[in-house]
Amino acid sequence: MPKKKIIVKQYTCLRDSREQQGWTFSNSVYCTGTLIKGLKTGDYSILGLEDTFTIERKKNTAEFAQNIIQARFENEMKRMENIPHSYLILEFTLNDLMKWPLNSGLPPSIQAKTRISKKFLLSRFMDFQTQYNTKIILAGVYGKDIATSLFKRMWDLYGK
User: What CATH number does residue 52 fall under?
Assistant: First the structure.
């Protein structure tokens, strides 16, 4: 008896056109690949689910430290409140945060001059945890893997 072929409808990953050094998702059983497009909120989404699902990404503690003192980032977090499935993926660990500015992505000459303390970074991290419904994931080196898993789950919920 011949096996039935299962047809899986694929999703298309969206990456914001302003995202610097962003992730690219390749064609797979589930994904058609990555389309670069301007997004109103977040850095990543799925074509057709932009108002339902978003991921904001911070590649290191230096980027996070720079963003948390900007009103623009606070406004982004507020916009993410209107998206049912919003995620902030931090590509560093709590250990990285607590060792600030070591391993931050800042050159050593700048590390010595930074006026942002690890206590302040931790305080702002906790503020975001308590003030917003966005799920914050300290992903370390697994940010893209976590994003891939989230894409699949969102597609299972909304895309088929």
Answer: 3.40.50.10130
CB 98 within 8 A of CB 118: yes
The 10s digit of each residue's pLDDT in 139-152 is: 999 999 999 999 99
Identify whether 3 is part of a domain: no
Tokens 């389309």 -> residue: 35
Range of the domain at 130: 11-159
**pTM exceeds 0.85:** yes
Q: Give the Cβ contact number of residue 36 at 10 Å.
A: 14
Query: Would you say residue 48 lies in a domain?
Result: yes
The alpha helices in 7-139, defined as continuous H runs, are 61-67, 71-80, 94-98, 108-111, 118-131
Residue range 8-65, pLDDT digits in tens: 689 999 999 999 889 999 999 999 999 999 999 999 999 999 999 999 999 999 999 9
Number of folded domains that form the chain: 1
Q: Exposed (0-12), middle (13-18) or buried (19+): which is 128, by Cβ within 10 Å?
A: middle
Residue 33 lies in a domain: yes
Spatial CA neighbour of 106 closest among 122, 92, 126, 120: 92
